[in-house]
Every structure is written in C-alpha cells, then in structure tokens.
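Email to the structure team, subject: Sugar kinase model.

Hi all, the expression group asked for a predicted structure before they design truncation constructs. Nothing fancy, just the tokens so they can compare against earlier work. One-line instruction: predict Sugar kinase, return tokens.
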Amino acid sequence: MSGLTLALDVGGTKIAAGLVDADGTLSHRAQLPTPEGDAETVWGAAAALLSETLAAADRPVTAVGIASAGPIDVPNGTVSPINITEWMHFPIVDRVADTTGLPVRLGGDGLCMALGERWRGAGRGARFMLGMVVSTGIGGGLVLDGSPFHGRTGNAGHVGHVIVEPDGALCTCGGRGCVETVASGPHLAQWARAHGWAAPPEADAKELAEAAGRGDEVAVRAFVRGADAIARMIASVAAVCDLDLVVVGGGVAKSGAVLFDPLREALATYSGLEFIRGLRVKPAELGGDAGLVGAAALAAAPGDGRAGPVDALPA
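Reply from the structure team: attached below.
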C-alpha cells in the first residue's frame, strides 16, 4: 500500500484536515470552526486537527499540503488571511513542520481548489485552467501548461480582485469595483434587496437562487448582473493566460442554471478573440473537499512548490 498525504485547509469559517491516497481519494476528513481569539488560539484548532488526522492514518504519511486563504507568502512560508485577522505573517509552514515532522508545501486555497478539480473533479487533465470559487468572496487559482502557477509570492490567480466596474463599490481589499463586490454571495443578495427583493432578513444567496429559479424578476436580474461581471473577469483572464477551461465552485455556483446560463451567454459576448471563443466553463464536482485534495496534489509536485512538469503532478 502506498503512503498517504496529510492535507490542511485553512479558511475564515472553518479549518479542515484530511488524509489523501495516492489516487486522490480522501480517506479521512475532520473539521472545526475557525475560532475567535489570538493567533495561538487559531493555531491550536489547526494543530488539534493535524494530530487527530495523523492518528487516524493506517499507513505512513509522507508529506503535508496546506491550502490557505490569502494573501500568502510562499517563499517565506507565511500566511496573512484577510478573514483571519489574528494571523499576520503567521509562520504556518514552520508550525506544521514542527508539529508533524514532515515536509510541507503551501498553496493558496484557490490554487488548491483548482488542483483538486484537475486531479479528481471537473478539470481532469486540463493543461490551461482557471479554478474559481464564488461564495462569500471570490477566489481562484491557475494551472498553466499543466503546472500549478503560484506567481512571485503565491497569490497568482486571485481573480476576485479583477476590476470590472472602475467606479464601483469599495472592496475589502481597498480597491474599487472588484468582481467580488458585484458577484459574491452577500453582494448578490445586497443588490437584490436594494432593488426590491422581499425576503426575510437572514435570506442569502441560496434563497436568492431559489427565488430566481421560481422566476422572481429581481432575483433573476441579480444573477444576470453577477454573471455578467464574472464573464468580464473570465474573458480578461483567458486573454492573458490562453485558457481552455474554467471550473467554478463555491456556494453561489450551486445555484446551477440561474448562474451558468447567463454566465455562458455573457461570456460569448466578451470572447471576441478566436482563441477565447472555445473556452469551456464547467461547475465544480468536488465541493468542499477540493481544497484538501488539491493541497495533497500540491504536496506531490516536485521542486520548490512554484512549478513542476505536468507529468509530475497527479493526473
């Protein structure tokens, strides 16, 4: 029996850990809510999950892959997630290595989602791919020529902050008009309420999608507007990176046709260049497990974590 890879997925809402087989099967999974408190309190939850998951292994664990919300700093092994304010330049690679005694590889959560979908999900075998998550925020990661593309610091593929409305709303990143301010779940619901959507105060993008599915005019307009913004972003990234596939996951992507139909229609209007016209857009298949599977794929890649030949990544 081949060894296992330990995967850790750190986000502002939850921290998850799992064991991944050599074929990409997630054989064990555990998670905890991301705790409030200082940096060590947050780390304590991650360390507890690592210990619990290692104890569940039925064979040797050979490496650890980390998927983290960003920004991250791959060269220095640190993370400063916007949604975990207690962690600023937190030395997660050293902490995980000290806890497990194993080699560790760090990647952004968007990149790991893309790698997970490429290995076991909707992006199997893709060579030029954007994987993106549309949820509370919008994130993404790039696979270019079959290899994970980190960029200079590990933050390449941060597509949620592509500007689609130059005079648009202020974003949490400090910029204006990012696609996240238009098409993320909370902003879809916020726009719909401002334009007459009558829903209970706790209703969110899930309820908005259900309303759109029933033909609610405002809900439909909200998704058309959000899909148009996503299409503008995708067309821009595709023109720069010469993509052949985009895989869209996250809670908003579970809306199905109310998102994907206007998204594909809008993308056709923005795809003027011949090499973009054949771009495929598919819903993700792995759900919340993609980050763990992708972190394991990243840990299996050769070199320093910034790139590797396509045949060295899990196929």
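Residues 304-312 have pLDDT under 50 and may be disordered. The CA atoms of residues 162 and 178 lie 5 Å apart. Ping us if the truncation boundaries need rechecking.
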